[in-house]
Fold this sequence. Notes:
Structural class of chain B: mainly alpha
Largest sheet of chain B: 3 strands, antiparallel
Number of helices of chain B: 11
Number of strands of chain A: 15
Order of helices and strands of chain B: HHHHHEHHEEHEHHEEH
CATH superfamily of one domain in chain B: Winged helix-like DNA-binding domain superfamily/Winged helix DNA-binding domain
Structural class of chain A: alpha+beta
Family (chain B): Belongs to the SNF8 family.
Oligomer: heterodimer
Helix content of chain A: 40-55%
CATH class of one domain in chain B: Mainly Alpha
CATH topology of one domain in chain B: Arc Repressor Mutant, subunit A
Distance between the termini of chain A: 82 Å
Strand order of the largest sheet of chain B: 1-3-2
Main location (chain B): cytoplasm
Shape of chain A: extended
CATH architecture of one domain in chain B: Orthogonal Bundle
Largest sheet of chain A: 9 strands, antiparallel
Organism (chain B): Nothobranchius furzeri
Subcellular location (chain B): Cytoplasm
Subunit structure (chain B): Component of the endosomal sorting complex required for transport II (ESCRT-II).
Radius of gyration of chain A: 32 Å
Helix content of chain B: 55-70%
Strand content of chain B: 5-15%
Largest interface: A-B, 73 and 74 residues
Amino acid sequence: MDRFSWSNGLLEIDETLVVQQRGVRLYDGDDKVKMELGVALLSTHRLIWRDIKNHVRSEQLCTIKQSHAKIVIHLHPSSPSKEPGPFQNSKYSYIKLSFKEHGQIEFYRRLTEEMTQKRWETTPCFFPPSMQGRKTRAVGIVGIERKIEEKRKETDKNISEAFEDLSKLMVKAKEMVELSRSIATKIKDKQGDITEDETIRFKSYLLSMGIANPVTRETHGSGTRYHMQLAKQLGDMLQAPLEERGGMMALTEVYCLVNRARGMELLSPEDLLNACKMLESMRLPLRLRVFDSGVMVVQLQSHSEEEMIASALDNVLEKGSLTAEEFAKLLGLSVLLSKERLLLAEKVGHLCRDDSVEGLRFYPNRF
Amino acid sequence: MHRRGVGAGAIAKKKLAEAKYKERGTVLAEDQIVQMSKQLETFKSNLEEFASKHKQEIRKDPQFRVQFQEMCATIGVDPLASGKGFWSEMLGVGDFYYELGVQIIEVCLALKHRNGGLITLDELHQRVLKGRGKYVQDVSQDDLVRAIKKLKVMGNGFGMIPVGGSYLVQSVPAELNMDHTVVLQLAEKKGYVTVSEIRDGLKWEKERACHVLDHLLKEGLAWLDSQATGEAHYWLPALFSELTSRDVTPEEANQMTP
């Protein structure tokens, strides 16, 4: 670790950033270095490590080897004219980078690439003597305390500034809320001549601001064009998953599936609900269904009710009796949904229940 | 442009209506909608400016988020209503809470086989934090509560029961009325409750106590320990502390039952 020197972390002319990875811990040989997880940056000339407080160390490249989420880097002995760094001497001539948040494969690949290309030899860079970072590298406990205090003051300042700005913003938002209420009242009292087009526009304004929609839900429900688009997307996206899961998925399952797939610009639960409400009216092959218990599911149109009930009855007949858990295991469904199916079959009179402390069990109805 | 009404007659009628409105000092709704559209544009750019300066604050500081949410609630705005809302798009509040929602659902689902769908807010908080990894944004219990409130609309029985100074989070549509809640609160201290404790503590008859306990058993929220010294103990896995519980996967659980 004594090969590292302080640097300001800025790249020189002719030096380019190759790859960076956060969540990297440094090891001096086999010893853990008393530094937190930071960001490792690989440039064409150097390996730079930056911790979360922005101190930077850098090192010239030499040989490397990979092992188990750690990259071991063997270093040449340091030149006598090396600038000061965090470690004066070390008994090891290799360091390790431990990748706590993965990224080691890519990093290793780029590292080996750079090693073969050896760009630092073809376009030599001059590295200015280390500047100690933007803040003075304070030493000792006093320095640490001072830094903490500075940071706290800065955070405080930021927060109070943020609050001020936020309050001003909220005043304007409030004006819009009042305006929208006035409009909504007028629409309800049917004053003036509002076209459907304008109503739709108004609804989308409410959606943008997050104002609850007080207008009646006749036209397109509380949905907007956005929700209609969403409904179409859902229609495409959910076909395959629904087939796999026997034609039915709980709304919370759909929420997780869709949002995990999106990664960004996630849907709110209300967005999902409003989109699903429009599925039927848009004649898409899915529909939203609410059971008596309040559970909401998305269901494939093609999976008819009778089929489900008949299959439930068949399964129960075969096994003599079934609980929701057993049924779930049999079909590969979630317990919640298999319970709903059994309840449905019971509702039409095909099954009857045995409700005891041991659980709810369903039998074919012989009455 | 839409055609609201054509012909001289319509124009005249409209002029009359406008005049009447001006007389009474009220503004036409259509004009207001136009006005709102303009104000919206201005607001949007103000919000953009705010976001460029303070977006990080919201993401990093749970306290700030609380303040932000409360201010929104005061003026009647729900920043989490839609992912398409300005707040969500520009400040990124939406993604933060919606993703949290996904994580909450996953944790609850993973533990349902053990606690029947009831979990303390503390345990939920711990597990969500563990799942998120160390360098993602800090999540407070207030954040969880707000995310759960949003999850409610999806009808899977998400709810919060006040118990012992904090909350139990329910994630299944089991019906829990006041009686059940009160028994849960009673059980909170030790993690279990007995019929006598209910009779002494709540002054109920035996039947009422048994009825409530049976329901909790049926819903998988309580476990019966008939081998306890004295009378039977009804344990609530949701209330188990770290010390007395060991994580078991659903497969293991199935193998264990005789």
